[in-house]
Amino acid sequence: MAGSNKLAVITGASTGIGFELAKICAAEGYDLIVAADEAQIEDAADQFRRSGGDVKALQTDLATLEGVDRLYELVKADGRPVDVLMANAGRGLGHGFLDQDFNEIQHVVDTNVTGTIYLVHKIGKDMRTRNEGKILFTGSIAGFMPGAFQAVYNATKAFVDSFAFALRNELKDTDVTVTCLMPGPTDTEFFERADMMDTSVGQAKKDDPAMVARTGYDAMMRGDGDTVSGWKNKLQSAIATVTPSGLLAEAHRKMAKPGSGSS
What we know:
The chain is 49% helix and 14% strand. By secondary structure, the protein is an alpha/beta fold. It has one domain (7-256): Rossmann fold (3-Layer(aba) Sandwich), CATH 3.40.50. Strands 3-2-1-4-5-6-7 form a 7-stranded parallel β-sheet, with helices on both faces. Helix 1 packs across helix 8 (209-222) and helix 4 packs parallel to helix 5. The longest helix is centred in the middle third of the chain and has 29 residues, at 102-130. The termini are far apart.
């Protein structure tokens, strides 16, 4: 069994919000098991080790049940209970739904939804058995808006936001807490990977991922149900809850339609 520190598991930890979440956990004295679907996870792990803790890294496809099983096997081999699970792995996809490649569509759904809830199902059951643990989902304020020209991604985040609240309620009589971090547009590789750099939202000023991660970590440690990072995003999410879906879809269209960004 490695180390005597508490153990945090973070998915999608190679870049962006997941990287910053893992960095915070390392600085707070957690040992880490980090996973992502790209080789960069090894470089990220080297940076996390600078905090002095034990870090295990795994490159695995978190869009597949087999890939999640590999991560869970690594967790079980460590021999310690998971104190913190940060289900952060996610993928985006821009352009009109009917113009997208369905294999890419399926990868977004399988990463953001299937792989996420499969991992939480496995580690969450272990937490419930011992009546201890913290789960942080990375949802999105995108889940409040029908995402014209980003339809599948927004729909998956609506699922994650809703699922996190439901699971939190199911576990309310236990000492397992569930928190949903709902960031707005954040300065990560997300928009480039989603082929959205020619859109208004792709070119707009974005939030600092370190700030977003700190907001989520602190909310998780308090046991909050949800947290929206940044005052502009808080305002946008509040407006979205009272705005008709058709108007929200039209507003999202102006942000996400290809070619909507300034040349």
